[in-house]
Each structure stands twice: as C-alpha cells, then as structure tokens.
C-alpha cells in the first residue's frame, strides 16, 4: 500500500465532505472601491426615494379632493376637477406605438451593425448611432413639427381610407387639418427618438456573444442568419428586453416632442390618426404656469401616477431579465 493510500485510509470518512474555509483580507484599495460602489448604490436609492416622497407629499391635497376619481376623471382643468382618465390612455398609446416602431428598427440596425456590416463600416455606423442617441429631444420635436408632420398628412389619409374598417383609424371629416397633430404622428417621432437607444444597447449585447459558439454554429453548417438566430439572439435576449423597457420608459416620459406635435384636446378619442391628444407630460409642461398654486397638487399627482407606472414597468422588466439571463440559452447543459 502506498503512502498516499495509507494516508487516505487513515482519514475519517467524513473528512472529504468538509469544505475548506478560505479567508482573504481585502487590501485598502478593495475596501475603498467596495465602499464607493455601496455609497453610489445607496445614493441612487435615496435620491429615487426622495423624489417619490416629494411627489407623494405634494400630491396629497389632490388625492384628498378627488380620491380614486382622480384616475377616471377626464376633466383637465383644475382646480375645480381634475383627473388623468383621459391622459393615461394617450400616454400609453404614444409609448406603445413608438415602441412598435422603434423595437424592430432598432434590432434590425443592431444586428446589421454587429453581424453583417463590413469592418470598415462598423465604426462609422456605431458613431452615428451613438450620436443619434445623444441628440436632444427638442431637435426631434422641431424636425417632427416642421418637416415630418406635413409629409405624413397624406400617408395618414391613405391609412384612414384603406383601414377604415378599424374603429381606431377612421377619421371624419376627411380633411388635411383633421390629421394634424395626431397621436400616430407624435408616436412615430417618439419612436425615431427611441430607436437609437434600443439599437445602441442591443448592439453592445450582440457583440459580446461567444466567438466559440459562433464558430461552432458555422462548423455545423449554419448560415449567417442561422448563427444569429441560434446564438446571438438567445445570448442577447435579456439585453434586448432591457433596451425595450428602457425605450418604453423613455417614451412614457417624453415631453418636448409630444408638446410640439400633439394638438391639446379634452376627453379621450381612440382615433389615433385624428387630430388631438394629450399626455401626462404634455399636460404638466403646458399648464404648470397657467394653473397657479391651486392647481399644482393636481399636476404633482399626475406626475406621481406616471412615476409609479414607470416604476412598475421597470420592476416587471427586471423580473423578466432575471429569469432570462443573456447567454443562458447558449450554454451547454
């Protein structure tokens, strides 16, 4: 019997099952870095909580006056009566339509830049996308109001004629001014504003797909699109969801574009091609001075509703992302 075998046989039977205890003493630089990260995280939570607390305190008078009617009241002229019953549907419509426009365009551009663009063209395209994502909202608002909206009136009329069976697309009377400042036009411009954000984030995730699994897909006879579909897209699923939710939150909170394009209206009209609409951000930006101190609690209450709605969306997105980590579908069992 060898010495190693004798030593092994002399050890207790349960000794191999006891894990080794490893103790490491962090150096001062590690402790400093950890403290900075902890402080930054606590600061973000504290700032967000302070904003929420401020909105709750300032909105309490409005909720005391209106109660739950605040969520269903369609009047937008405080301080007599005020509610977000007509503002919430418009806010959601603009955000959802803009995401329907931005998500396919952003993903297609991200896939092209990451997988199909020649190496000499990738860097310029990445720079252009990053620059577009940094353009201020007011530039998109001016462009949409002065150039895009006049060009879209004919397209809106065509859609109204050919999709007249749908209740949300019929417009009466059929005149050019009936399509000016519609929810559809505002949502498309907001979608163009959100597209570079989705494209930039998705491209960064797609570019991190494992090179070994790309080559393995090619070795098994896959085409480039087959490799993208089976390797890149599953690996970047969580990143795509995160970019889509970030774009949705950006669209929900957009103010300048909808203020420039939408024609303010009272009540809610489901015809997205017809002139008129009003979102929560547009209402706050337009009437923050007109309402005076008596109406400010109602505007704070509207902002609180939007804040809570965005918080719920981000929480749901975090849950979905945590259950769909990038690369989980490409890892071997």
What features would you describe in this structure?
The chain has a domain at about 90-295: MetI-like fold (Orthogonal Bundle). About 65% of the residues lie in helices and about 0% in strands. It is built from twelve helices and two strands, in the order ααββαααααααααα. A two-stranded antiparallel ribbon has the order 1-2.
DSSP, total strands: 2
| C-alpha-based Rg, rounded | 27 Å
Return the structural class.
Answer: mainly alpha
The coarse overall form would be: globular
Sheet bearing the most strands, described? 2 strands, antiparallel
The separation of the N and C termini measures 39 Å
Strand order of the largest sheet: 1-2
CATH topology of the domain at 89-294: MetI-like fold
Averaged pLDDT: 81
The total of helices stands at 12
Percentage beta strand: under 5%
Helix content: 55-70%
CATH superfamily of the domain at 89-294: MetI-like
CATH top-level class of the domain at 89-294: Mainly Alpha
Which blocks of ≥5 consecutive residues have pLDDT under 50? 326-333
- Elements, N to C (H/E): HHEEHHHHHHHHHH
**What is the CATH architecture annotation of the domain at 89-294?**
Orthogonal Bundle
Describe the structure in brief.
The protein has a domain at 89-294: MetI-like (MetI-like fold, Orthogonal Bundle), CATH 1.10.3720.10. It is built from twelve helices and two strands.
């Amino acid at each position: 019997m060898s010495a190693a075998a004798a030593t092994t046989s002399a050890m207790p039977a349960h000794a191999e099952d006891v894990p080794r205890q490893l103790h490491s003493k962090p150096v001062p630089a590690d402790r400093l870095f950890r403290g900075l990260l902890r402080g930054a995280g606590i600061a973000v939570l504290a700032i967000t909580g302070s904003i929420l607390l401020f909105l709750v305190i300032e909105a309490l008078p409005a909720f005391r006056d209106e109660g739950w009617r605040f969520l269903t009241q369609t009047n937008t002229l405080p301080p007599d009566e005020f509610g977000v019953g007509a503002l919430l549907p418009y806010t959601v419509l603009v955000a959802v339509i803009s995401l329907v426009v931005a998500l396919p365009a952003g993903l297609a551009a991200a896939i092209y830049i990451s997988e199909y663009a020649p190496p000499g063209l990738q860097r310029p395209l990445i720079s252009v996308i990053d620059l577009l994502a940094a353009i201020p909202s007011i530039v998109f608002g001016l462009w949409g109001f002065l150039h895009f909206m006049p060009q879209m009136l004919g397209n809106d009329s065509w859609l109204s004629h050919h999709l007249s069976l749908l209740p949300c697309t019929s417009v009466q009377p059929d005149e050019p001014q009936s399509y000016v400042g519609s929810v559809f036009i505002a949502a498309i411009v907001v979608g163009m504003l959100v597209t570079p954000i989705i494209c930039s984030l998705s491209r960064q995730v797609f570019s991190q797909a494992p090179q070994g699994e790309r080559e393995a897909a090619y070795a098994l006879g896959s085409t480039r699109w087959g490799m993208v579909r089976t390797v890149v897209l599953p690996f970047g699923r969580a990143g795509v969801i995160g970019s889509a939710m970030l774009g949705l939150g950006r669209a929900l909170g957009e103010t300048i574009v909808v203020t420039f394009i939408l024609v303010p209206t009272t009540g809610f009209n489901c015809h997205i091609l017809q002139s008129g609409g009003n979102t929560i951000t547009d209402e706050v930006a337009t009437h923050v001075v007109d309402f005076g101190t008596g109406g400010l609690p109602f505007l704070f209450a509207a902002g609180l509703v939007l804040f809570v709605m965005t918080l719920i969306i981000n929480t749901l997105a975090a849950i979905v992302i945590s259950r769909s980590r990038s690369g989980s579908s490409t890892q071997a069992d």
